[in-house]
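Hey, resending since the last one bounced:
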Amino acid sequence: MDLLSRMPFEANASVWGAVLGAARTHKNVDLGQRAARELLVLEPEKSGTHSLLANIYASVGLWEEVADTRRLMKDSKVKKEPGMSWIEVKDRVYTFIVGDRSHSMSEEIFKKLGELMDLIREEGYVPVLENDLHNVTTSEKEVLLLYHSEKLAVAFGLIATPPRAPIRVKKNLRVCIDCHTFLKFVSKVVTREIIVRDINRFHHFRDGNCSCGDYW
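The structure tokens again:
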């Protein structure tokens, strides 16, 4: 904020977007609200501002504020783009959405997810629930997080590609913090390189680490 006050020009949406992302990382509600106000003026049509602000509120248990933010988003007629992930296998592109059971191999995919969860829990994985926007029980949140589109795509990739072949997935939104943590652990237990291209950057997961240095 000190840098913003000293810049010889007005901060644009990219700058305020970085501030909002940092506020989410550090659970700074006041700063998040300030950045969101600026972004709603600069980019009123973007749903990401509402989503990130709601994530900040959820991370500190402010569920009424989460509901208010979602209501504002609805009243403003801003639509949140549904999360989707794609993976190409043998010259065919497969698309996944959260909880997707339309794939012909859904039973195998969900079974693989269960196996992966057992393996990574033994390595110390704990679901990151604080940014989930659903005001439900912990166990219900864990179930909702397990079926995010990138998890489904990676599980399918592990089934459908040769051993040790890299898994390459593209997502239309930012990878959530739980999926990011999940994929780090998976890359370690299956000894595979997992490459995810989300809306912000490439993530190269290898041996339990990510190329973004956990600042995504």
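The chain has a mean pLDDT of 88.

Sorry for the duplicate.
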